[in-house]
Amino acid sequence: MxxxxxxxxxxxxxxxxxxxxxxxxxxxxxxDPNTNASAIDLAMPGTLPVVxxxxxxxxxxxxxxxxxxINQKSVFERKNYFYPDLPKGYQTxxxxxxxxxxxxxxxxxxxxxxxxxxxxxxxxxxxxxxSLHEDFHGMSGIDLNRAGTPLIEIVxxxxxxxxxxxxxxxxxxxxIITYLDISDGEMxxxxxxxxxxxxVRPMGQEELGxxxxxxxxxxxxxxxxxxxxxxxxxxxxxxxxxxVVQETRLYDADKNETRSMRSKEVANDYRYFPCPDLLxxxxxxxxxxxxxxxxxxxxxxxxxxxxxxxxxxxxxxxxLTQNRETADYFETAAKTCGDSKLAANWVTVELAALLNxxxxxxxxxxxxxxxLGQMIQRIKDGSISGKIAKTxxxxxxxxxxxxxxxIEAKGLKQVSDSGAIEAMVDEVLAANxxxxxxxxxxxxxxxxxxxxxxxxxVMKISKxxxxxxxxxxxxxxxx
Amino acid sequence: MHNLSxxxxxxxxxxxxxxxxxxxxxxxxxxxxxxxSINAYITKLDESALAAAQQADKQIAxxxxxxxxxxxxxxKDIFCAxxxxxxxxxxxxxxxxxxxxxxxVANLKQAGAICLGKTNMDEFAxxxxxxxxxxGKTMNPWDLETVPGGxxxxxxxxxAARLAPIATATDTGGSIRQPASLCGITGxxxxxxxxxxxxxxxxxxxxxQAGPMGKSAEDCALLLQAMASFDSKDxxxxxxxxxxxxxNLNAPLEGLRVGVPKEFFExxxxxxxxxxxxxxxxxxxxxxxxxxxxxxxxxxxxxxTYYVLAPAEASANLSRFDGxxxxxxxxNPSDLMDMYCRSREEGFGEEVKRRIMIGTYVLSAGYYxxxxxxxxxxxxxxxxxxxxxxxxxxxxxxxxxxxxxxxxGAKTDNPVEMYLEDIYTISVNLAGLPGMSLPxxxxxxxxxxxQLIGKHFDESLILNAAHMFQQATDWHTLAPAxxxxxxxxxxxAS
Lengths: 479, 494
Fold this sequence. Notes:
The complex is a heterodimer of chains A (479) and B (494). Chain A is an alpha+beta fold. Chain A folds into three domains: 3-290, no CATH class; 311-410, no CATH class; 418-478, Arc Repressor Mutant, subunit A (Orthogonal Bundle). Chain A contains 15 helices and 15 strands. In chain A, helix 5 packs across helix 6 (314-320) and helix 9 (369-380) packs antiparallel against helix 10. The longest helix of chain A is centred in the middle third of the chain and has 20 residues, at 220-239. Chain A is elongated and about 95 Å long. With 494 residues, chain B is of the alpha/beta class. Chain B has a single domain, classed as Amidase signature (AS) enzymes (Alpha-Beta Complex). In chain B, 37% of the residues lie in helices and 13% in strands. Chain B has helices at 6-15, 20-38, 46-61, 103-111, 153-160, 177-183, 217-227, 271-286, 302-317, 336-347, 350-363, 369-389, 415-419, 426-431, 459-472; strands at 41-44, 72-76, 114-119, 166-171, 186-189, 209-214, 257-261, 290-294, 395-399, 435-443, 446-454. Chain B has an eight-stranded mixed beta sheet. In chain B, helix 2 (20-38) runs antiparallel to helix 3 and helix 9 crosses helix 11. The A-B interface holds A 39, 42-51, 78, 80, 82, 84, 87-90, 142, 269, 271-273, 276-279 and B 79-80, 86, 88, 93, 96, 98-100, 102, 197-202, 204-206, 232-236, 312-313, 315-316, 318-322, 324-326, 336, 340, 360, 363-365, 368, 372.
């Protein structure tokens, strides 16, 4: 039997506010434990929450960015459960009336197609603290610096059918939140966290299978691996006559397996109810309108513009717009060299490979966009060949200067002087008289292919610096 | 000296008849002498009180006195005070020293008032008799065999016994008005949002409200003046102008429309209390007011509604007492679950546990709609009843309690009977309205309270109506014999 995978994602995004969602403590990680924890964060008796307006604004902007309904009245509720790093014994979150209602995120796939993923809603809530289990001699330490950090939880509909779609969706969310500058979106740092709801069903069946929720997927790469391994497990289970149990499963990246987290626990009853310490938050029409008007150009719009203005493929456009820095980098390089396609190629292929290899982000790239643009310009004006450009590119990466400086210093400038090339052509023809005869006796349709041999020889003598166009022209003339 | 009103003390201070240190010492002496008999105080603050009184005397000498500068008072032990033990009447917080001041505490410090100590209360304000306190029961100064009411029984008893001229208190379902009634003093629960809840340990957040207790409406006006403020730290605090509560105390009541809800005089009310309240209403007619019969048809649903909503909120509010960061933690927990269970088992008393369980139950999956949601809907109906009534009347009057102070243990075995103590007060909290209790009679020496209920933010009118009644009657001036039961008064009989 063939199976279809159904995936929905729940993404937690830490907002980059200065202070916490319900207290004035700084949102600032890497500090000594409990130094960013006030009486409110410690849930001291008698303390009360006050909503951070900036968190509301950021959530509103996210909602507007995915074309969602903004609920101008939203309600915070208490989600009750005991945990040592949850100081109040409840998490203040939203349930029945979240700030962001249904929306749409469009994803681009590698095969050039696009797909709409529906967002069920997105709500605001507070992060918990951290439990530390090392260095406490069998006890646990609690660090509440993170407690109260604002989060938006984005809940998708089960609209994805492959891990690739899930990754594309996650990347698109990442692009949106970084464009809006509302989060760092660093999965490795936990400022963006992803849970995946995964189920399988026989191909063609409409009814959804029983889903499991996968937690602890803390990189884009693990999304694919975790989903694949869970799908395999579910299919094996069903094909062996078993049943999938609805449960939360932890993804173990080291063992590449998922395992049940809460099988022994009774289902939690969180007893949500509206938080009586907080009034419903009401957003005015003017506020929402002002936020709508001040949105930056978003990934989807930028993608469309890259296709229309720059003539890129939809897929290249989506790769280049995954974050604002990359998009800006590309646009600067394209503007400098005047060739968008070439610029796109260099950014998505050569540059991306080196950045990946060195585990660097575009903002840490040692080659400036202007320098890359200048190098591409030198390819276009014939100063260097595409092959020599790779040498220049590597030298720029190593900090040896701008493209022009490197070409000059290393004497890489292409030889276009026809006298010099003619001399080299003569030398090659003299040394390969047999091949010259063969060429001259060959049928015209075979000749272009045979010409390559001579071009190669000339390029060899010139150490790659001869202008290939010029070499071709003179060779044809002489032959 | 201990029978003086706040205004009289203030006058004495400014005229130099006595100093703040002297009157503070006088009350501290009385507390040390008498409080062992009634247990109104959990914590006595002699040292800081005298230090503050010295400061106050300097301020008075410098001519910079406010109406409460140098005036001794007591705080209910529900308000967090920096560096001071704040127990909320619970073993859970037996050794809890607050790291910060409640807004009410800060406001009274700012006003220059002198805190004598922190008063006893039902554990986490859950009770109507102060019998649920971990720190022992408080005795009613009018009859040491009876309860002072609750949860602010300590504050009420302290004022009645003249162990403090005025005291702060809180009221979630009647916790200011009912003990005021039972102890024969005056107490006002302001409009929800009038006094900041920051630093006031939460019981039921949507109803908790702090207010003043004193011997008279005049004293309550002065204390409320200092307590009330808009506070950006409390999201439910309302930014409404704080008027001069003393300004209109003497306004004539000619033409005042007093609503009398028939539901407050039906079965369950002690007929002798009904008679006393009717006498009080007749007094209002004499003062020029008109009595108008009104209906509050949903008020009979107030107690069950409250006992769904308040425990629901409390069940979450009390989750923070988990033994992790502060408060009681059991000895040698075997694991996390053991620590949670035993810390809370040992730290909370029976009534608190009962309400946590009720609250947990009514919020549970499958019961939420039947209980919590339904109760919220009924709350709206109760509020609507008041809105309709206030279209016809300016103020509502009736009994505060169905009976006078009862014997210890009389209602501890039957929680529902205890809950019915608040049958006339609870609807006011559900509607967020201001309400007051003032003495209006006695039955066998035990005080009877008259309740006045006003529109939102109409504290001034309530205080005015209460003050005019107190100008015409002397019920509020009566003190229990216990208050004069000092060796000084007894001529050294001991």
